[in-house]
Protein backbone atom coordinates (compact mmCIF):
# COMPACT_ATOMS: atom_id res chain seq x y z
CA UNK A 1 0.00 0.00 0.00
CA UNK A 2 1.43 3.40 -1.00
CA UNK A 3 1.72 6.37 1.36
CA UNK A 4 -1.17 8.03 -0.46
CA UNK A 5 -3.33 4.93 -0.16
CA UNK A 6 -2.64 4.82 3.59
CA UNK A 7 -3.59 8.50 3.87
CA UNK A 8 -6.84 7.88 1.98
CA UNK A 9 -7.57 4.77 4.03
CA UNK A 10 -7.36 6.86 7.22
CA UNK A 11 -9.52 9.59 5.72
CA UNK A 12 -12.12 7.00 4.76
CA UNK A 13 -12.30 5.61 8.27
CA UNK A 14 -12.87 9.13 9.66
CA UNK A 15 -15.49 9.82 6.99
CA UNK A 16 -17.39 6.61 7.74
CA UNK A 17 -17.49 7.47 11.43
CA UNK A 18 -18.85 10.89 10.49
CA UNK A 19 -21.55 9.37 8.26
CA UNK A 20 -22.93 7.10 10.99
CA UNK A 21 -22.73 9.74 13.70
CA UNK A 22 -26.08 10.80 15.16
CA UNK A 23 -27.33 14.19 13.99
CA UNK A 24 -27.54 17.13 16.37
CA UNK A 25 -30.62 17.93 18.43
CA UNK A 26 -31.90 20.60 16.01
CA UNK A 27 -31.75 18.21 13.07
CA UNK A 28 -33.48 15.48 15.06
CA UNK A 29 -36.31 17.83 16.07
CA UNK A 30 -36.60 19.06 12.49
CA UNK A 31 -36.82 15.49 11.18
CA UNK A 32 -39.61 14.64 13.63
CA UNK A 33 -41.54 17.76 12.60
CA UNK A 34 -41.13 16.94 8.92
CA UNK A 35 -42.31 13.40 9.56
CA UNK A 36 -45.49 14.77 11.17
CA UNK A 37 -46.05 17.05 8.19
CA UNK A 38 -45.58 14.16 5.76
CA UNK A 39 -48.18 12.15 7.64
CA UNK A 40 -50.69 14.96 7.09
CA UNK A 41 -50.11 15.12 3.35
CA UNK A 42 -52.71 13.08 1.39
CA UNK A 43 -51.46 9.88 -0.21
CA UNK A 44 -52.36 11.09 -3.71
CA UNK A 45 -50.11 14.11 -3.20
CA UNK A 46 -47.24 11.89 -2.12
CA UNK A 47 -47.74 9.79 -5.25
CA UNK A 48 -47.83 12.88 -7.45
CA UNK A 49 -44.61 14.24 -5.95
CA UNK A 50 -42.94 10.84 -6.27
CA UNK A 51 -43.85 10.53 -9.94
CA UNK A 52 -42.71 14.10 -10.64
CA UNK A 53 -39.33 13.72 -8.96
CA UNK A 54 -38.78 10.26 -10.47
CA UNK A 55 -39.41 11.72 -13.92
CA UNK A 56 -37.23 14.73 -13.19
CA UNK A 57 -34.31 12.61 -11.95
CA UNK A 58 -34.52 10.09 -14.79
CA UNK A 59 -34.59 12.90 -17.37
CA UNK A 60 -31.54 14.44 -15.70
CA UNK A 61 -29.77 11.07 -15.64
CA UNK A 62 -30.23 10.66 -19.40
CA UNK A 63 -29.10 14.20 -20.15
CA UNK A 64 -26.09 13.99 -17.85
CA UNK A 65 -24.95 10.71 -19.35
CA UNK A 66 -25.06 12.16 -22.86
CA UNK A 67 -23.04 15.26 -21.96
CA UNK A 68 -20.42 13.64 -19.69
CA UNK A 69 -16.91 13.42 -21.12
CA UNK A 70 -15.35 10.11 -20.05
CA UNK A 71 -12.17 10.25 -22.13
CA UNK A 72 -10.11 12.17 -19.57
CA UNK A 73 -10.35 9.50 -16.86
CA UNK A 74 -8.17 6.80 -18.42
CA UNK A 75 -4.80 5.74 -17.00
CA UNK A 76 -4.86 7.96 -13.91
CA UNK A 77 -3.58 7.14 -10.44
CA UNK A 78 -5.88 7.59 -7.44
CA UNK A 79 -4.03 10.78 -6.52
CA UNK A 80 -4.54 12.18 -10.03
CA UNK A 81 -8.20 11.20 -9.97
CA UNK A 82 -8.70 12.91 -6.61
CA UNK A 83 -7.02 16.10 -7.85
CA UNK A 84 -9.13 16.13 -11.01
CA UNK A 85 -12.23 15.50 -8.93
CA UNK A 86 -11.46 18.48 -6.69
CA UNK A 87 -11.22 20.73 -9.74
CA UNK A 88 -14.59 19.44 -10.95
CA UNK A 89 -16.11 20.06 -7.52
CA UNK A 90 -14.78 23.61 -7.46
CA UNK A 91 -16.39 24.33 -10.83
CA UNK A 92 -19.76 22.79 -9.98
CA UNK A 93 -19.80 24.45 -6.57
CA UNK A 94 -19.35 27.85 -8.23
CA UNK A 95 -22.21 27.05 -10.60
CA UNK A 96 -24.45 26.04 -7.68
CA UNK A 97 -23.58 29.21 -5.75
CA UNK A 98 -24.45 31.42 -8.72
CA UNK A 99 -27.70 29.50 -9.27
CA UNK A 100 -28.62 29.74 -5.60
CA UNK A 101 -27.90 33.46 -5.41
CA UNK A 102 -29.86 34.13 -8.59
CA UNK A 103 -32.98 32.18 -7.65
CA UNK A 104 -32.76 33.41 -4.05
CA UNK A 105 -32.71 37.04 -5.18
CA UNK A 106 -35.77 36.44 -7.34
CA UNK A 107 -38.15 35.76 -4.46
CA UNK A 108 -40.70 32.98 -4.20
CA UNK A 109 -41.26 32.26 -7.90
CA UNK A 110 -37.60 31.89 -8.81
CA UNK A 111 -36.99 30.22 -5.46
CA UNK A 112 -39.33 27.45 -6.49
CA UNK A 113 -37.33 27.00 -9.70
CA UNK A 114 -34.24 26.34 -7.61
CA UNK A 115 -35.28 22.76 -6.83
CA UNK A 116 -35.06 21.29 -10.35
CA UNK A 117 -32.08 23.47 -11.29
CA UNK A 118 -30.02 22.42 -8.28
CA UNK A 119 -31.04 18.78 -8.72
CA UNK A 120 -29.79 18.93 -12.31
CA UNK A 121 -26.45 20.40 -11.20
CA UNK A 122 -26.01 17.69 -8.57
CA UNK A 123 -26.78 14.84 -10.95
CA UNK A 124 -24.50 16.21 -13.66
CA UNK A 125 -21.75 16.52 -11.06
CA UNK A 126 -22.18 12.88 -10.00
CA UNK A 127 -21.84 11.73 -13.60
CA UNK A 128 -18.63 13.71 -13.91
CA UNK A 129 -17.43 12.16 -10.65
CA UNK A 130 -18.08 8.65 -11.97
CA UNK A 131 -16.10 9.48 -15.12
CA UNK A 132 -13.18 10.85 -13.10
CA UNK A 133 -12.94 7.63 -11.10
CA UNK A 134 -13.15 5.48 -14.23
CA UNK A 135 -16.71 4.12 -14.07
CA UNK A 136 -18.87 3.90 -17.19
CA UNK A 137 -22.29 5.51 -16.68
CA UNK A 138 -23.57 3.85 -19.83
CA UNK A 139 -24.03 0.86 -17.54
CA UNK A 140 -27.30 0.81 -15.62
CA UNK A 141 -25.62 -0.36 -12.41
CA UNK A 142 -23.38 2.72 -12.41
CA UNK A 143 -26.38 5.02 -12.70
CA UNK A 144 -27.97 3.10 -9.85
CA UNK A 145 -24.79 3.60 -7.81
CA UNK A 146 -25.01 7.34 -8.46
CA UNK A 147 -28.52 7.42 -6.99
CA UNK A 148 -27.29 5.60 -3.88
CA UNK A 149 -24.46 8.09 -3.48
CA UNK A 150 -27.04 10.87 -3.73
CA UNK A 151 -29.15 9.22 -1.04
CA UNK A 152 -26.12 8.74 1.18
CA UNK A 153 -25.43 12.47 1.00
CA UNK A 154 -28.98 13.67 1.61
CA UNK A 155 -30.79 11.35 3.98
CA UNK A 156 -31.73 10.88 7.61
CA UNK A 157 -29.45 9.12 10.11
CA UNK A 158 -30.99 5.67 9.69
CA UNK A 159 -31.20 5.84 5.91
CA UNK A 160 -27.62 7.08 5.73
CA UNK A 161 -26.40 4.01 7.63
CA UNK A 162 -28.29 1.77 5.22
CA UNK A 163 -26.84 3.53 2.16
CA UNK A 164 -23.32 3.38 3.55
CA UNK A 165 -23.65 -0.37 4.05
CA UNK A 166 -24.85 -0.81 0.45
CA UNK A 167 -22.03 1.30 -0.98
CA UNK A 168 -19.36 -0.38 1.15
CA UNK A 169 -20.56 -3.76 -0.12
CA UNK A 170 -21.55 -2.70 -3.62
CA UNK A 171 -20.24 -5.74 -5.49
CA UNK A 172 -22.54 -8.00 -3.47
CA UNK A 173 -25.42 -5.56 -2.98
CA UNK A 174 -25.85 -4.52 -6.61
CA UNK A 175 -26.90 -8.06 -7.55
CA UNK A 176 -29.97 -7.64 -5.34
CA UNK A 177 -30.92 -4.13 -6.47
CA UNK A 178 -33.24 -3.70 -9.44
CA UNK A 179 -34.22 -0.07 -8.72
CA UNK A 180 -34.55 2.35 -5.83
CA UNK A 181 -37.58 3.21 -3.74
CA UNK A 182 -38.59 6.47 -5.41
CA UNK A 183 -41.10 7.42 -2.72
CA UNK A 184 -38.38 7.13 -0.09
CA UNK A 185 -35.86 8.85 -2.37
CA UNK A 186 -37.92 12.01 -2.82
CA UNK A 187 -39.12 12.17 0.77
CA UNK A 188 -35.65 11.79 2.29
CA UNK A 189 -34.26 14.42 -0.08
CA UNK A 190 -37.06 16.92 0.53
CA UNK A 191 -36.85 16.44 4.29
CA UNK A 192 -33.11 17.03 4.17
CA UNK A 193 -33.23 20.33 2.25
CA UNK A 194 -36.69 21.76 3.04
CA UNK A 195 -35.77 23.58 6.25
CA UNK A 196 -32.68 25.35 4.93
CA UNK A 197 -34.21 26.08 1.54
CA UNK A 198 -37.25 27.69 3.15
CA UNK A 199 -35.13 30.68 4.19
CA UNK A 200 -34.09 31.18 0.57
CA UNK A 201 -37.62 32.39 -0.19
CA UNK A 202 -37.40 35.29 2.28
CA UNK A 203 -37.01 38.65 0.47
CA UNK A 204 -33.81 40.50 1.28
CA UNK A 205 -31.75 37.54 2.43
CA UNK A 206 -32.72 34.96 -0.20
CA UNK A 207 -29.68 35.52 -2.41
CA UNK A 208 -27.20 35.18 0.44
CA UNK A 209 -28.97 32.13 1.88
CA UNK A 210 -29.29 30.52 -1.55
CA UNK A 211 -25.60 30.91 -2.32
CA UNK A 212 -24.52 29.69 1.13
CA UNK A 213 -26.86 26.68 1.18
CA UNK A 214 -25.99 25.58 -2.34
CA UNK A 215 -22.28 25.84 -1.56
CA UNK A 216 -22.67 23.56 1.43
CA UNK A 217 -24.97 21.09 -0.35
CA UNK A 218 -22.46 20.67 -3.20
CA UNK A 219 -19.64 20.43 -0.69
CA UNK A 220 -21.42 17.60 1.12
CA UNK A 221 -22.21 15.82 -2.13
CA UNK A 222 -18.60 16.20 -3.23
CA UNK A 223 -17.22 14.72 -0.03
CA UNK A 224 -19.71 11.84 -0.23
CA UNK A 225 -19.05 11.07 -3.89
CA UNK A 226 -15.26 11.19 -3.58
CA UNK A 227 -15.20 8.81 -0.64
CA UNK A 228 -17.81 6.48 -2.12
CA UNK A 229 -15.67 6.00 -5.23
CA UNK A 230 -12.52 5.72 -3.15
CA UNK A 231 -14.18 2.88 -1.24
CA UNK A 232 -14.81 1.02 -4.45
CA UNK A 233 -11.34 1.59 -5.86
CA UNK A 234 -9.46 0.68 -2.70
CA UNK A 235 -11.89 -2.04 -1.58
CA UNK A 236 -11.69 -0.73 1.98
CA UNK A 237 -13.19 -2.98 4.65
CA UNK A 238 -14.70 -1.67 7.92
TrEMBL record:
<dbReference type="InterPro" id="IPR024787">
    <property type="entry name" value="EcsC"/>
</dbReference>
<dbReference type="Pfam" id="PF12787">
    <property type="entry name" value="EcsC"/>
</dbReference>
<protein>
    <submittedName>
        <fullName>ABC transporter-associated protein EcsC</fullName>
    </submittedName>
</protein>
